Amino acid sequence: MNLTDTVPTGSTANLVVLAAVVVGALLIGYGLVLVPQSTLGGAHVAVIGGTLALSGLFETRAVGDRFGLSPRTRRTFSLAFAVIALLLVLAFVVLQQGTFDTRTAQGVG
Questions:
Q1: Which of 62, 63, 77, 78 has its Cβ near the most Cβ atoms within 10 Å?
Q2: What is the pLDDT of residues 4-39, one digit of tens each?
């Protein structure tokens, strides 16, 4: 048994990949909508969406065939982009919490 045997190929895996790409695209759009109010926040949300979408895209066989990637390499790229997206979400929460606390302490919010 090797890693290619453990890569999911069923309809559930396809739904997860589709969900990652769709949610990523929606986050990119939402980030662009946020840019006029907070350039840094909007860009941060858009980058989170981009990394999530890339995570889903690298899991597809079409992208692997296009770039000549083995299933193991595709899985590595997919997981790497998912971890980056998670780290960016955590950074976003920490940054937004810090600015929210500052605003409420000053009586703005």
A1: 78
A2: 444 455 677 788 889 999 999 999 999 999 999 988
